[in-house]
DNA sequence: ATGGGCGTTGCAGAGGATGCAACGGGCCAG
DNA sequence: CTGGCCCGTTGCATCCTCTGCAACGCCCAT
């Protein structure tokens, strides 16, 4: 809608690919160098881009702070976190929390027991939307036409032979998930990883987030993982209750 | 430099404080509602702001993805990480990695052994720049006039009685750190937490990052922590060597 | 019903963004 | 050492695009 801002913001994903110099930015934006320079300067003033010692630009530090504060405004996460930690302590597997936003499903929290992984390897990263249990849960709650629209728009990469192959299969899966109130991902993303997930609902019954438990099949079989379903659902329900209760702040 | 972009970007920190509606944004920017609307729309198209169900705007999900990719471009972090993990395995305490950028010092990695903390509670967050060991290390490497300029500009919150009280004390501390090549924070941020840190240098000898080890004083006394200094410095030096060696890629 | 609040749209005018051309500094090769 | 090249930077005139206004429509509360 606003050309200048649009151009400026287009620089960010561009720099996300890696550092670039003025000429490269100008070329990619298809504008004159002097224009690119002014845009970059403005971004720089706001800390969104940083000029490294070789004069090339890369994404800046303020982005962290903003992403940070963005996540802190998500009150679901705040309420859910202690529950996730508790569940993790109980069953030992990795626990994820995810939300749906603007055609993307993304993890907003993760609790991992075994070893301290670099958490940012997942947090904030869009999930494999066609196969992840949390994605199925979040999309299943959309209205039928919305589900259809999203399903048609997606790609269906075959991460493994058990990945969701196409829109038809995906929509069918969403219907199942919608009715049973929980979801699985049995080796659909990575051959040896299974997940089970449950939805977190707001006071109006709509799904506001989804949580999942993941475990490698070498540790627990899919059947064993499914025995955890009750406790996972109980946790999700507890979060739902607390979230609904707190809503009228 | 570019008014339109400048205004648009000013919306982000504003929304970081919490969700806001169109009128509030327009007022804070001191522009007409229609102008604010167009700016918000553009930000929205780029996923930087999200319009929640009550029509108010808040920071959007794409910010995660960007911050995510930003951190992945920091090659110091990549090189340092395995070393930090190794050190953590050896001594068991929390290990931090931080860089200086645009008048801010911020953590870009953290390895915590005991329990899986919410990593993003620290990663990306600006550190207590007047007291943290890593901050001292990074600032100590600036030129004298730069140090002075930064020191004057800072606030000196007294987190504890042992916090750095003012610019004079801070500059003196920086001189010490600069000469000895390592730094401490003994209860300067939180009464019961001590840290020791060492600098990571690039091929040109300049400090590109700093690492630190933190431990609660109830577990190890400050004196005991200081006995770890050699191994911390060795780790930092190992990272420096690898970083310098890899630089001519 | 009716008024107020809020978001939205179309438009004309003006202010700002754009691209051009020229400058300057660093770097490499001759 | 010197020339030339590349890249970032600056000032400026032109034109585009952003801006603020006013009017509309919608929803909610009175």
From TrEMBL, chains A, B:
Q: Which domain of life is it from?
A: Bacteria
Does Cell cycle show up as a keyword for this record? Answer: no
Keyword terms of this UniProt record: DNA-binding, Transcription, Transcription regulation
Q: Does the keyword Protease apply?
A: no
What InterPro entries does this protein map onto?
GAF-like_dom_sf, HTH_MetabolicPath_Reg, Tscrpt_reg_IclR_C, Tscrpt_reg_IclR_N, WH-like_DNA-bd_sf, WH_DNA-bd_sf
Q: Which residues form the HTH iclR-type domain?
A: 2-61
Which residues fall in a coiled-coil region? Answer: none
> Where is the secretion signal located?
none
Q: Which residues form the IclR-ED domain?
A: 62-245
One Pfam family per UniProt: HTH_IclR
Q: What is this protein called?
A: IclR family transcriptional regulator
Q: Which organism is it from?
A: Streptomyces polyasparticus
């Amino acid at each position: 809608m606003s050309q200048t801002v649009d151009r400026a913001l287009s620089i960010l994903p561009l720099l996300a690919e890696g550092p670039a110099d003025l000429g490269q930015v100008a070329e990619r934006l298809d504008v004159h160098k002097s224009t690119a320079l002014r845009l970059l300067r403005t971004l720089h003033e706001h800390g969104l881009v940083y000029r490294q010692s070789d004069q090339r630009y890369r994404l800046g530090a303020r982005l962290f702070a903003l992403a940070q504060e963005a996540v802190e405004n998500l009150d679901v996460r705040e309420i859910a976190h202690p529950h996730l930690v508790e569940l993790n302590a109980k069953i030992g597997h990795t626990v994820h929390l995810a939300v749906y936003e603007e055609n993307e499903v993304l993890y907003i929290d993760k609790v991992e027991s075994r070893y301290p992984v670099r958490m940012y390897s997942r947090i904030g990263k869009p999930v494999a939307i066609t196969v992840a249990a949390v994605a199925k849960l979040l999309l299943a709650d959309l209205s039928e036409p919305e589900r259809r629209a999203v399903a048609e728009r997606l790609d269906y990469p075959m991460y493994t032979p058990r990945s969701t192959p196409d829109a038809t299969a995906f929509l069918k899966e969403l219907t199942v998930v919608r009715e049973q109130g929980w979801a699985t991902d049995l080796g659909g993303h990575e051959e040896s990883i299974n997940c089970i997930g449950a939805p977190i609902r707001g006071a109006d019954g709509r799904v506001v987030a989804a949580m999942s438990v993941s475990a490698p099949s070498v540790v627990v079989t899919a059947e064993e993982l499914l025995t955890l379903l009750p406790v996972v659902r109980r946790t999700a329900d507890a979060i739902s209750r607390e979230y609904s209760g707190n809503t009228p702040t």
